[in-house]
Amino acid sequence: MTWDPTQIGDLRGRTYLITGANGGIGYFAADQLLRAGADVIVAGRNPAKLDDAISALSASAKVPAAGIGKLRIDTSSIESSTKAAAEITGRGIELDGLILNAGLVHGPKTRTVTPEGHELFFATNILGHFAFVGSILDSLTGAAPHIVWLGSSTAIKGEYSFTDPELADAAAEYKPMKVYAHSKAATTMVGAEAARRFAKAGSPIASVIAHPGYALGGRGPVVPGINEPTLKERIVDTLQAPFSQTKELGAHALVRAAVDPQVTGGEFVGPKGYKGPTQIGEAPRYATDQAAADRLWDYLEKATGVIWP
After folding, report:
1. What is the pLDDT of residues 152-196, one digit of tens each?
2. How many structural domains comprise the chain?
3. Are the C-beta atoms of 251 and 227 separated by less than 8 Å?
4. Contacts 24+ apart (CB under 8 A), 52-59
5. What range defines the domain where residue 114 resides?
């Protein structure tokens, strides 16, 4: 079935939090949820950009800006992520879903560590989110809450043992896109393992992985202050049209993973390949490697200091 976010029903009374919602795919996911009547908390590291996103979302979805929540979080920092979680729990916010969209795609050309001592891609794309989610699980109180982890078409295939999660031993062979794919494979593995753990515990929480395909800003609608591709970017992105799609279409996967009752946990939601209709499929084969999943989970708990209940 082709997924149409304009026909997802009435989401009034539900609340979703989206990290990295101040731009790109996260912004369009927020827009689609707001149009369906949901309450949305936009989260990101730059307060000014969050304010710009709230203004644009308010105008687009025709909802009061005061009704769109805001949360500052820098997922490259474990400290920032746990502080953001404490703010959510401290405010007594109840959530029906999390969309963990924030991430680093185009990073430094050489291996870089954060002030906390973690490899930058790994910290931003998985460590911060793991710490954040593990600290606010009690806030997921909806009838069937969904946690959506953002995977990538670059990490659909491959073998990932996670014996060296932050690639410290591979620093001499550092290639940014390979490191990015590795971090997304870790995200996929965590999403699948969380689904198994929730199911074993009898929890109503569904953990699912979504991927937007190859989504480009230059092919999508112009949103002042949010998506303003240059002429060169539009030309380059248009030339890639045969194997890409807009970020607006890419957001369909995130939204479906968050709200579709057919998604029950552990699935891989997104187009088949780089573009196309959003489908519900199985997670990549490597995500079923229980030994690798256990190694990664243990590493994440030790690295973040957050033990999931």
Report:
1. 888 888 788 899 999 888 766 788 888 999 999 999 999 999 999
2. 1
3. no
4. 52/22, 52/225, 52/226, 53/21, 53/22, 53/23, 53/27, 53/225, 53/226, 55/225, 56/27, 56/223, 56/224, 56/225, 56/226, 57/27, 57/30, 57/31
5. 5-304
* Residue 277 in domain: yes
How far lies 46's CA from each of 59, 75, 199, 200, in Å? 20, 12, 36, 38
CATH of residue 186's domain is 3.40.50.720
141 domain residue, yes or no: yes
Which region, left, alpha or beta, applies to residue 13 given φ > 0 means left and ψ of -120 to 50 means alpha? left
Tokens of 157: 């295939």
State pLDDT tens for residues 188-236: 999 999 999 999 999 999 999 999 887 767 666 777 777 777 777 777 7
Mean pLDDT of the chain: 90
List the one residue out of 41, 92, 96 whose CA is nearest residue 206: 96
- Residues 6+ away with beta carbon under 8 Å from 160: 182, 185, 186, 189, 286, 289, 292
- At residue 150, φ and ψ (nearest 5 deg) are -90, 110
Q: By the 8 A CB rule, do 17 and 71 touch?
A: yes
Whether 309 is in a domain gets the answer no
Q: Is residue 166 domain-resident?
A: yes
Express each pLDDT in 231-275 by its tens digit: 777 777 677 766 678 888 889 999 999 999 999 999 999 888 788
- Residue 121 banded pLDDT, cuts 50, 70, 90: very high
Q: CA–CA separation, 300 vs 233, rounded Å?
A: 37
Is pLDDT above 80 for 78?
A: yes
Whole-prediction pTM value? 0.93
